[in-house]
Structure to design on (469 residues):
Protein backbone atom coordinates (compact mmCIF):
# COMPACT_ATOMS: atom_id res chain seq x y z
CA UNK A 1 0.00 0.00 0.00
CA UNK A 2 2.82 2.34 0.94
CA UNK A 3 4.64 1.50 -2.27
CA UNK A 4 1.55 2.20 -4.34
CA UNK A 5 0.98 5.46 -2.58
CA UNK A 6 4.57 6.53 -3.20
CA UNK A 7 4.32 5.62 -6.89
CA UNK A 8 1.06 7.47 -7.11
CA UNK A 9 2.84 10.63 -6.06
CA UNK A 10 5.56 10.24 -8.71
CA UNK A 11 4.77 12.53 -11.64
CA UNK A 12 4.03 10.64 -14.86
CA UNK A 13 3.08 7.41 -13.15
CA UNK A 14 0.59 9.28 -11.00
CA UNK A 15 -1.03 10.82 -14.09
CA UNK A 16 -1.31 7.44 -15.78
CA UNK A 17 -2.94 5.87 -12.75
CA UNK A 18 -5.35 8.79 -12.39
CA UNK A 19 -6.32 8.66 -16.07
CA UNK A 20 -6.91 4.94 -15.93
CA UNK A 21 -9.01 5.15 -12.76
CA UNK A 22 -11.22 7.84 -14.33
CA UNK A 23 -11.77 5.79 -17.46
CA UNK A 24 -12.48 2.70 -15.39
CA UNK A 25 -15.47 4.47 -13.89
CA UNK A 26 -16.76 5.55 -17.29
CA UNK A 27 -16.00 2.18 -18.82
CA UNK A 28 -17.82 0.34 -16.08
CA UNK A 29 -21.07 1.41 -17.76
CA UNK A 30 -22.46 -0.56 -20.67
CA UNK A 31 -21.45 0.65 -24.11
CA UNK A 32 -24.23 2.79 -25.55
CA UNK A 33 -26.24 0.56 -27.91
CA UNK A 34 -26.19 1.82 -31.51
CA UNK A 35 -29.38 1.38 -33.51
CA UNK A 36 -30.06 1.62 -37.24
CA UNK A 37 -33.33 3.00 -38.63
CA UNK A 38 -32.96 2.30 -42.37
CA UNK A 39 -32.47 -0.86 -44.42
CA UNK A 40 -29.97 0.86 -46.75
CA UNK A 41 -26.58 -0.64 -47.58
CA UNK A 42 -24.20 1.35 -45.39
CA UNK A 43 -20.67 2.21 -46.56
CA UNK A 44 -17.89 0.06 -45.05
CA UNK A 45 -17.06 0.99 -41.43
CA UNK A 46 -13.36 1.87 -41.56
CA UNK A 47 -11.83 1.02 -38.16
CA UNK A 48 -10.49 3.99 -36.22
CA UNK A 49 -9.33 2.00 -33.19
CA UNK A 50 -7.60 -1.35 -32.86
CA UNK A 51 -5.78 -3.17 -35.66
CA UNK A 52 -6.50 -2.06 -39.22
CA UNK A 53 -8.41 -4.27 -41.67
CA UNK A 54 -10.32 -3.91 -44.92
CA UNK A 55 -13.98 -3.73 -43.87
CA UNK A 56 -16.83 -5.62 -45.51
CA UNK A 57 -20.05 -4.22 -46.97
CA UNK A 58 -23.28 -5.73 -45.61
CA UNK A 59 -25.98 -5.86 -48.29
CA UNK A 60 -28.90 -3.74 -47.02
CA UNK A 61 -27.17 -3.66 -43.67
CA UNK A 62 -24.39 -2.22 -41.55
CA UNK A 63 -21.47 -2.95 -39.21
CA UNK A 64 -21.84 -2.34 -35.47
CA UNK A 65 -19.44 0.28 -34.04
CA UNK A 66 -17.48 -0.75 -30.94
CA UNK A 67 -15.45 0.91 -28.26
CA UNK A 68 -12.03 -0.08 -26.98
CA UNK A 69 -11.96 -0.64 -23.22
CA UNK A 70 -8.45 -1.37 -21.93
CA UNK A 71 -7.61 -3.31 -25.07
CA UNK A 72 -10.96 -5.14 -25.24
CA UNK A 73 -13.35 -4.53 -28.14
CA UNK A 74 -16.79 -3.97 -26.62
CA UNK A 75 -20.03 -4.30 -28.56
CA UNK A 76 -23.61 -4.01 -27.33
CA UNK A 77 -26.32 -6.08 -29.06
CA UNK A 78 -29.96 -5.48 -28.12
CA UNK A 79 -32.39 -8.28 -29.02
CA UNK A 80 -35.73 -6.58 -29.72
CA UNK A 81 -38.82 -6.41 -31.93
CA UNK A 82 -38.11 -4.44 -35.11
CA UNK A 83 -39.95 -3.25 -38.20
CA UNK A 84 -38.02 -4.29 -41.30
CA UNK A 85 -38.82 -2.89 -44.71
CA UNK A 86 -38.46 -6.00 -46.92
CA UNK A 87 -39.01 -4.03 -50.11
CA UNK A 88 -40.35 -0.53 -50.72
CA UNK A 89 -44.00 -0.53 -49.60
CA UNK A 90 -43.74 -3.82 -47.72
CA UNK A 91 -42.85 -3.88 -44.03
CA UNK A 92 -42.64 -6.87 -41.73
CA UNK A 93 -42.81 -7.02 -37.95
CA UNK A 94 -39.78 -9.11 -37.03
CA UNK A 95 -37.41 -9.68 -34.16
CA UNK A 96 -33.81 -8.64 -34.61
CA UNK A 97 -30.95 -6.71 -33.06
CA UNK A 98 -30.33 -2.97 -32.72
CA UNK A 99 -33.27 -1.86 -34.84
CA UNK A 100 -32.89 -4.25 -37.78
CA UNK A 101 -33.19 -7.84 -38.94
CA UNK A 102 -30.62 -9.21 -39.50
CA UNK A 103 -28.65 -7.58 -36.73
CA UNK A 104 -25.54 -5.55 -37.50
CA UNK A 105 -22.41 -7.25 -38.80
CA UNK A 106 -19.64 -7.70 -36.21
CA UNK A 107 -16.11 -7.16 -37.55
CA UNK A 108 -13.03 -7.97 -35.49
CA UNK A 109 -9.43 -9.01 -36.08
CA UNK A 110 -7.86 -12.38 -35.31
CA UNK A 111 -6.47 -12.22 -31.78
CA UNK A 112 -8.86 -9.48 -30.59
CA UNK A 113 -10.36 -9.93 -27.15
CA UNK A 114 -14.06 -9.29 -27.70
CA UNK A 115 -16.70 -8.49 -25.06
CA UNK A 116 -20.32 -8.71 -26.21
CA UNK A 117 -23.05 -7.21 -24.04
CA UNK A 118 -26.39 -8.76 -24.99
CA UNK A 119 -29.56 -7.09 -23.69
CA UNK A 120 -32.86 -8.92 -24.08
CA UNK A 121 -35.82 -6.67 -24.91
CA UNK A 122 -37.90 -9.52 -26.32
CA UNK A 123 -41.01 -10.86 -24.59
CA UNK A 124 -39.25 -14.22 -24.09
CA UNK A 125 -35.84 -15.49 -23.09
CA UNK A 126 -32.96 -15.75 -25.53
CA UNK A 127 -29.19 -16.36 -25.89
CA UNK A 128 -26.65 -15.81 -28.64
CA UNK A 129 -24.64 -18.63 -30.15
CA UNK A 130 -21.46 -17.52 -31.96
CA UNK A 131 -21.63 -19.93 -34.93
CA UNK A 132 -18.23 -21.29 -35.97
CA UNK A 133 -16.11 -19.63 -33.27
CA UNK A 134 -13.40 -21.27 -31.22
CA UNK A 135 -14.26 -20.15 -27.68
CA UNK A 136 -14.56 -21.37 -24.09
CA UNK A 137 -17.51 -23.76 -23.83
CA UNK A 138 -19.31 -21.46 -21.40
CA UNK A 139 -19.40 -18.69 -24.06
CA UNK A 140 -21.07 -20.90 -26.71
CA UNK A 141 -24.56 -19.57 -25.96
CA UNK A 142 -26.68 -22.73 -25.82
CA UNK A 143 -29.54 -22.10 -23.37
CA UNK A 144 -29.71 -24.75 -20.66
CA UNK A 145 -26.54 -26.49 -21.86
CA UNK A 146 -23.81 -23.89 -21.44
CA UNK A 147 -25.64 -21.02 -19.71
CA UNK A 148 -29.01 -20.05 -18.25
CA UNK A 149 -31.18 -18.24 -20.80
CA UNK A 150 -31.18 -14.44 -20.76
CA UNK A 151 -34.58 -13.50 -19.33
CA UNK A 152 -36.48 -10.49 -20.70
CA UNK A 153 -34.95 -7.26 -19.40
CA UNK A 154 -31.62 -8.89 -18.50
CA UNK A 155 -28.16 -8.33 -19.97
CA UNK A 156 -25.49 -11.01 -20.33
CA UNK A 157 -21.81 -10.60 -21.15
CA UNK A 158 -19.90 -12.90 -23.51
CA UNK A 159 -16.14 -12.57 -23.71
CA UNK A 160 -13.64 -14.49 -25.79
CA UNK A 161 -10.67 -14.11 -28.10
CA UNK A 162 -11.47 -14.23 -31.82
CA UNK A 163 -9.00 -17.02 -32.55
CA UNK A 164 -9.68 -18.04 -36.11
CA UNK A 165 -9.97 -15.64 -39.08
CA UNK A 166 -13.03 -16.30 -41.24
CA UNK A 167 -16.72 -15.98 -41.97
CA UNK A 168 -19.14 -16.59 -39.11
CA UNK A 169 -22.62 -15.73 -37.91
CA UNK A 170 -24.57 -15.31 -34.70
CA UNK A 171 -28.09 -16.40 -33.79
CA UNK A 172 -30.14 -17.41 -30.74
CA UNK A 173 -29.87 -20.89 -29.26
CA UNK A 174 -33.13 -20.58 -27.27
CA UNK A 175 -36.58 -21.18 -28.79
CA UNK A 176 -34.73 -21.22 -32.09
CA UNK A 177 -37.69 -22.15 -34.24
CA UNK A 178 -39.52 -19.00 -33.21
CA UNK A 179 -36.59 -16.65 -32.97
CA UNK A 180 -34.98 -17.53 -36.29
CA UNK A 181 -38.37 -17.57 -38.06
CA UNK A 182 -38.77 -14.05 -36.69
CA UNK A 183 -35.44 -12.87 -38.13
CA UNK A 184 -32.88 -13.05 -35.31
CA UNK A 185 -29.45 -13.52 -36.85
CA UNK A 186 -26.37 -11.60 -37.87
CA UNK A 187 -23.01 -11.85 -39.60
CA UNK A 188 -19.57 -11.99 -38.00
CA UNK A 189 -16.23 -11.47 -39.77
CA UNK A 190 -12.87 -12.13 -38.16
CA UNK A 191 -10.22 -10.53 -40.38
CA UNK A 192 -6.73 -12.05 -40.46
CA UNK A 193 -4.13 -10.30 -38.27
CA UNK A 194 -1.35 -10.60 -40.86
CA UNK A 195 -1.28 -11.61 -44.53
CA UNK A 196 -2.71 -15.15 -44.72
CA UNK A 197 -1.65 -17.49 -47.56
CA UNK A 198 -5.26 -18.66 -48.11
CA UNK A 199 -7.08 -15.37 -47.57
CA UNK A 200 -6.71 -13.02 -50.53
CA UNK A 201 -6.79 -9.25 -50.25
CA UNK A 202 -9.90 -8.19 -52.14
CA UNK A 203 -11.20 -4.89 -53.47
CA UNK A 204 -14.85 -5.52 -52.50
CA UNK A 205 -16.04 -7.83 -49.76
CA UNK A 206 -19.84 -8.29 -49.55
CA UNK A 207 -21.76 -10.22 -46.87
CA UNK A 208 -25.36 -11.26 -46.41
CA UNK A 209 -27.48 -14.00 -44.83
CA UNK A 210 -30.00 -16.18 -46.64
CA UNK A 211 -33.24 -16.20 -44.68
CA UNK A 212 -36.91 -17.04 -45.26
CA UNK A 213 -40.27 -15.97 -43.89
CA UNK A 214 -43.87 -17.06 -44.13
CA UNK A 215 -46.03 -13.95 -44.08
CA UNK A 216 -49.61 -14.23 -45.35
CA UNK A 217 -50.42 -11.62 -48.00
CA UNK A 218 -51.70 -8.58 -46.11
CA UNK A 219 -50.21 -9.65 -42.76
CA UNK A 220 -47.20 -8.18 -40.98
CA UNK A 221 -45.87 -10.94 -38.74
CA UNK A 222 -44.26 -14.20 -39.89
CA UNK A 223 -45.90 -17.52 -39.11
CA UNK A 224 -43.44 -19.35 -36.91
CA UNK A 225 -44.72 -22.93 -37.26
CA UNK A 226 -43.85 -23.14 -40.96
CA UNK A 227 -41.27 -25.79 -41.72
CA UNK A 228 -40.96 -25.78 -45.51
CA UNK A 229 -43.65 -23.63 -47.13
CA UNK A 230 -42.04 -20.25 -46.73
CA UNK A 231 -43.34 -17.64 -49.14
CA UNK A 232 -40.62 -14.98 -48.79
CA UNK A 233 -37.08 -15.97 -49.74
CA UNK A 234 -34.82 -13.20 -48.60
CA UNK A 235 -31.26 -11.93 -48.45
CA UNK A 236 -30.75 -10.05 -45.21
CA UNK A 237 -34.54 -9.93 -44.78
CA UNK A 238 -34.99 -8.16 -48.13
CA UNK A 239 -36.69 -9.40 -51.31
CA UNK A 240 -35.99 -8.39 -54.88
CA UNK A 241 -36.49 -5.67 -56.06
CA UNK A 242 -35.68 -4.45 -52.55
CA UNK A 243 -32.18 -6.02 -52.54
CA UNK A 244 -29.43 -3.56 -53.45
CA UNK A 245 -27.11 -4.35 -56.35
CA UNK A 246 -23.48 -5.31 -55.73
CA UNK A 247 -21.58 -2.49 -57.45
CA UNK A 248 -17.97 -3.14 -58.38
CA UNK A 249 -15.18 -1.74 -60.53
CA UNK A 250 -14.07 -3.76 -63.54
CA UNK A 251 -11.16 -6.09 -62.66
CA UNK A 252 -11.84 -5.78 -58.94
CA UNK A 253 -11.23 -8.95 -56.95
CA UNK A 254 -14.64 -9.52 -55.38
CA UNK A 255 -15.53 -11.70 -52.39
CA UNK A 256 -19.13 -12.54 -51.50
CA UNK A 257 -19.76 -14.24 -48.15
CA UNK A 258 -23.12 -15.86 -47.47
CA UNK A 259 -24.61 -17.85 -44.62
CA UNK A 260 -27.77 -19.94 -44.82
CA UNK A 261 -30.20 -19.78 -41.89
CA UNK A 262 -33.26 -21.02 -43.80
CA UNK A 263 -34.73 -24.54 -43.71
CA UNK A 264 -33.51 -25.57 -47.18
CA UNK A 265 -30.47 -25.32 -49.43
CA UNK A 266 -29.82 -22.53 -51.93
CA UNK A 267 -27.79 -23.08 -55.11
CA UNK A 268 -26.31 -19.61 -55.59
CA UNK A 269 -25.64 -18.69 -59.19
CA UNK A 270 -23.50 -15.89 -60.68
CA UNK A 271 -23.85 -14.86 -64.33
CA UNK A 272 -20.95 -13.87 -66.59
CA UNK A 273 -18.06 -15.02 -64.36
CA UNK A 274 -16.61 -18.14 -62.80
CA UNK A 275 -15.87 -18.04 -59.10
CA UNK A 276 -13.98 -20.17 -56.57
CA UNK A 277 -15.29 -21.17 -53.15
CA UNK A 278 -12.44 -19.90 -50.98
CA UNK A 279 -13.88 -20.47 -47.54
CA UNK A 280 -16.55 -22.02 -45.35
CA UNK A 281 -17.53 -21.46 -41.74
CA UNK A 282 -14.66 -23.87 -41.00
CA UNK A 283 -12.14 -21.40 -42.42
CA UNK A 284 -10.33 -20.77 -45.71
CA UNK A 285 -10.32 -23.78 -48.04
CA UNK A 286 -6.97 -25.30 -49.14
CA UNK A 287 -6.08 -24.15 -52.68
CA UNK A 288 -6.01 -27.76 -53.91
CA UNK A 289 -9.77 -28.01 -53.21
CA UNK A 290 -10.81 -24.99 -55.28
CA UNK A 291 -12.29 -25.31 -58.76
CA UNK A 292 -14.21 -22.92 -61.00
CA UNK A 293 -17.99 -22.85 -60.63
CA UNK A 294 -20.89 -20.64 -61.61
CA UNK A 295 -23.27 -22.16 -59.05
CA UNK A 296 -22.55 -23.38 -55.57
CA UNK A 297 -24.96 -24.86 -53.07
CA UNK A 298 -25.17 -23.33 -49.62
CA UNK A 299 -26.74 -25.93 -47.35
CA UNK A 300 -28.64 -25.20 -44.17
CA UNK A 301 -26.42 -23.79 -41.45
CA UNK A 302 -23.46 -23.37 -43.83
CA UNK A 303 -21.44 -20.38 -44.88
CA UNK A 304 -19.68 -20.05 -48.22
CA UNK A 305 -17.40 -17.38 -49.56
CA UNK A 306 -17.05 -16.89 -53.32
CA UNK A 307 -14.24 -15.08 -55.04
CA UNK A 308 -13.77 -13.91 -58.61
CA UNK A 309 -12.18 -11.16 -60.67
CA UNK A 310 -15.01 -9.06 -62.07
CA UNK A 311 -13.45 -8.65 -65.51
CA UNK A 312 -16.63 -8.50 -67.62
CA UNK A 313 -18.56 -5.25 -67.69
CA UNK A 314 -22.31 -5.47 -67.44
CA UNK A 315 -25.34 -6.01 -65.23
CA UNK A 316 -24.95 -9.65 -64.21
CA UNK A 317 -27.80 -11.48 -62.53
CA UNK A 318 -26.93 -13.14 -59.21
CA UNK A 319 -29.60 -15.35 -57.66
CA UNK A 320 -30.67 -18.58 -56.02
CA UNK A 321 -31.23 -21.12 -58.79
CA UNK A 322 -34.39 -22.61 -57.27
CA UNK A 323 -37.00 -20.90 -59.38
CA UNK A 324 -39.49 -20.73 -56.54
CA UNK A 325 -36.95 -18.78 -54.51
CA UNK A 326 -36.91 -15.93 -57.02
CA UNK A 327 -40.60 -15.21 -56.45
CA UNK A 328 -42.42 -13.41 -53.67
CA UNK A 329 -45.54 -14.27 -51.69
CA UNK A 330 -48.33 -15.92 -53.61
CA UNK A 331 -51.38 -17.94 -52.80
CA UNK A 332 -50.59 -21.64 -52.69
CA UNK A 333 -52.24 -24.33 -54.83
CA UNK A 334 -52.74 -22.09 -57.83
CA UNK A 335 -53.70 -24.38 -60.73
CA UNK A 336 -51.70 -23.90 -63.90
CA UNK A 337 -53.87 -22.17 -66.48
CA UNK A 338 -51.35 -22.06 -69.32
CA UNK A 339 -53.16 -22.81 -72.55
CA UNK A 340 -56.59 -22.76 -70.90
CA UNK A 341 -58.87 -20.35 -72.73
CA UNK A 342 -61.24 -19.34 -69.98
CA UNK A 343 -62.18 -15.76 -70.75
CA UNK A 344 -65.49 -16.93 -72.15
CA UNK A 345 -66.60 -18.61 -68.95
CA UNK A 346 -65.62 -15.85 -66.52
CA UNK A 347 -69.14 -14.49 -66.14
CA UNK A 348 -70.36 -17.99 -65.31
CA UNK A 349 -67.57 -18.52 -62.79
CA UNK A 350 -68.24 -15.09 -61.28
CA UNK A 351 -71.69 -16.26 -60.23
CA UNK A 352 -69.96 -18.79 -58.02
CA UNK A 353 -66.73 -16.93 -57.15
CA UNK A 354 -67.32 -13.16 -57.32
CA UNK A 355 -63.62 -12.21 -57.20
CA UNK A 356 -62.54 -14.64 -59.93
CA UNK A 357 -60.20 -13.12 -62.49
CA UNK A 358 -58.71 -14.39 -65.71
CA UNK A 359 -55.04 -14.83 -65.10
CA UNK A 360 -51.99 -16.79 -66.07
CA UNK A 361 -53.37 -18.38 -69.22
CA UNK A 362 -50.08 -17.61 -70.97
CA UNK A 363 -47.83 -18.27 -67.96
CA UNK A 364 -47.26 -16.37 -64.75
CA UNK A 365 -45.28 -13.49 -66.26
CA UNK A 366 -48.55 -11.71 -67.09
CA UNK A 367 -48.99 -11.23 -63.39
CA UNK A 368 -46.02 -8.87 -63.20
CA UNK A 369 -47.75 -6.47 -65.57
CA UNK A 370 -51.26 -6.89 -64.27
CA UNK A 371 -52.32 -4.38 -61.67
CA UNK A 372 -53.95 -6.97 -59.47
CA UNK A 373 -55.94 -5.84 -56.47
CA UNK A 374 -53.76 -7.10 -53.61
CA UNK A 375 -54.10 -6.69 -49.85
CA UNK A 376 -52.24 -3.82 -48.20
CA UNK A 377 -48.63 -4.56 -47.28
CA UNK A 378 -48.02 -7.23 -49.90
CA UNK A 379 -45.02 -7.49 -52.17
CA UNK A 380 -45.71 -8.19 -55.81
CA UNK A 381 -45.03 -11.81 -56.67
CA UNK A 382 -42.43 -10.88 -59.27
CA UNK A 383 -41.24 -7.52 -60.46
CA UNK A 384 -38.31 -5.18 -60.75
CA UNK A 385 -38.25 -2.75 -63.64
CA UNK A 386 -35.13 -3.24 -65.75
CA UNK A 387 -34.03 -1.17 -68.75
CA UNK A 388 -35.86 -3.60 -71.07
CA UNK A 389 -39.03 -4.15 -69.04
CA UNK A 390 -40.06 -6.23 -66.06
CA UNK A 391 -37.33 -8.54 -64.77
CA UNK A 392 -40.06 -10.96 -63.60
CA UNK A 393 -38.14 -11.92 -60.50
CA UNK A 394 -38.59 -11.67 -56.76
CA UNK A 395 -37.05 -13.14 -53.62
CA UNK A 396 -33.39 -14.14 -53.74
CA UNK A 397 -32.26 -12.12 -56.74
CA UNK A 398 -29.93 -9.19 -57.29
CA UNK A 399 -27.50 -7.81 -59.86
CA UNK A 400 -23.71 -7.53 -59.84
CA UNK A 401 -22.96 -4.28 -61.67
CA UNK A 402 -19.44 -4.29 -63.14
CA UNK A 403 -18.25 -0.95 -64.51
CA UNK A 404 -14.87 0.29 -65.79
CA UNK A 405 -15.77 3.74 -64.50
CA UNK A 406 -16.69 2.77 -60.92
CA UNK A 407 -14.29 4.57 -58.55
CA UNK A 408 -12.32 2.52 -56.00
CA UNK A 409 -14.25 2.48 -52.75
CA UNK A 410 -17.43 3.78 -54.42
CA UNK A 411 -20.32 1.41 -53.69
CA UNK A 412 -23.06 3.59 -55.19
CA UNK A 413 -25.37 2.34 -57.96
CA UNK A 414 -23.96 3.26 -61.39
CA UNK A 415 -27.36 2.85 -63.10
CA UNK A 416 -28.06 0.44 -65.95
CA UNK A 417 -25.30 -0.90 -68.20
CA UNK A 418 -25.19 0.54 -71.72
CA UNK A 419 -24.53 -2.33 -74.10
CA UNK A 420 -21.98 -1.48 -76.81
CA UNK A 421 -23.59 -1.44 -80.27
CA UNK A 422 -23.93 -4.90 -81.77
CA UNK A 423 -23.51 -6.80 -78.49
CA UNK A 424 -27.11 -7.39 -77.50
CA UNK A 425 -29.75 -9.92 -78.47
CA UNK A 426 -32.12 -8.65 -81.16
CA UNK A 427 -35.34 -9.64 -82.83
CA UNK A 428 -35.13 -11.66 -86.05
CA UNK A 429 -37.37 -10.05 -88.63
CA UNK A 430 -36.58 -12.27 -91.66
CA UNK A 431 -38.70 -15.22 -92.73
CA UNK A 432 -38.70 -18.40 -90.66
CA UNK A 433 -37.96 -21.74 -92.32
CA UNK A 434 -40.28 -24.72 -91.68
CA UNK A 435 -38.79 -26.79 -88.86
CA UNK A 436 -37.38 -30.04 -90.21
CA UNK A 437 -39.01 -33.08 -88.64
CA UNK A 438 -37.08 -35.85 -86.94
CA UNK A 439 -37.42 -38.63 -89.48
CA UNK A 440 -35.75 -41.71 -88.07
CA UNK A 441 -36.29 -43.89 -85.05
CA UNK A 442 -32.83 -45.40 -85.46
CA UNK A 443 -31.28 -42.94 -83.07
CA UNK A 444 -33.14 -44.31 -80.10
CA UNK A 445 -31.54 -46.93 -77.93
CA UNK A 446 -34.65 -49.08 -78.36
CA UNK A 447 -37.29 -48.80 -81.06
CA UNK A 448 -40.53 -47.25 -79.98
CA UNK A 449 -43.60 -49.49 -79.78
CA UNK A 450 -45.27 -49.34 -83.07
CA UNK A 451 -48.64 -48.55 -81.57
CA UNK A 452 -49.06 -47.26 -78.00
CA UNK A 453 -51.75 -49.09 -76.09
CA UNK A 454 -53.42 -45.79 -75.43
CA UNK A 455 -52.60 -42.22 -76.35
CA UNK A 456 -51.49 -40.42 -73.23
CA UNK A 457 -50.95 -36.71 -72.99
CA UNK A 458 -49.73 -35.14 -69.82
CA UNK A 459 -50.30 -31.60 -68.80
CA UNK A 460 -47.81 -30.12 -66.42
CA UNK A 461 -49.50 -28.45 -63.49
CA UNK A 462 -47.30 -25.92 -61.73
CA UNK A 463 -46.94 -24.48 -59.12
CA UNK A 464 -48.17 -27.33 -57.00
CA UNK A 465 -47.14 -29.60 -54.21
CA UNK A 466 -47.89 -27.02 -51.54
CA UNK A 467 -49.98 -28.24 -48.66
CA UNK A 468 -53.03 -26.30 -47.68
CA UNK A 469 -52.97 -25.24 -44.06
CU1 LIG B 1 -33.00 -20.74 -52.77
Amino acid sequence: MTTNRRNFLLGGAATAVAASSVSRVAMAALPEPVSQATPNTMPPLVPNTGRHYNPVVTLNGWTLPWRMNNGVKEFHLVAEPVVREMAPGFKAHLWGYNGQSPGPTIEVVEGDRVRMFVTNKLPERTTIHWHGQRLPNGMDGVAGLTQPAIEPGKTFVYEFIARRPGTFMYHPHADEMTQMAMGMMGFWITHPKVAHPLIAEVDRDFVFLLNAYDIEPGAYTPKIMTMLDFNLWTWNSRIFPGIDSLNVRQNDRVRIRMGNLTMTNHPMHVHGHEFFVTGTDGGPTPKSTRWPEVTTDVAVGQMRQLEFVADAEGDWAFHCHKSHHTMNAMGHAVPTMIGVEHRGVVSEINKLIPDYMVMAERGMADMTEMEMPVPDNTARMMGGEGPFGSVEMGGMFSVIKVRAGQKPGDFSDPGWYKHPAGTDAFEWTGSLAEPSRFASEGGQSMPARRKPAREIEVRIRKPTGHMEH
In short: Residues 35 and 98 are 5 Å apart (CA to CA). The pocket of copper (II) ion is lined by residues 233, 266, 320, 322, 325, 396 (CB under 6 Å). The chain has a mean pLDDT of 85.
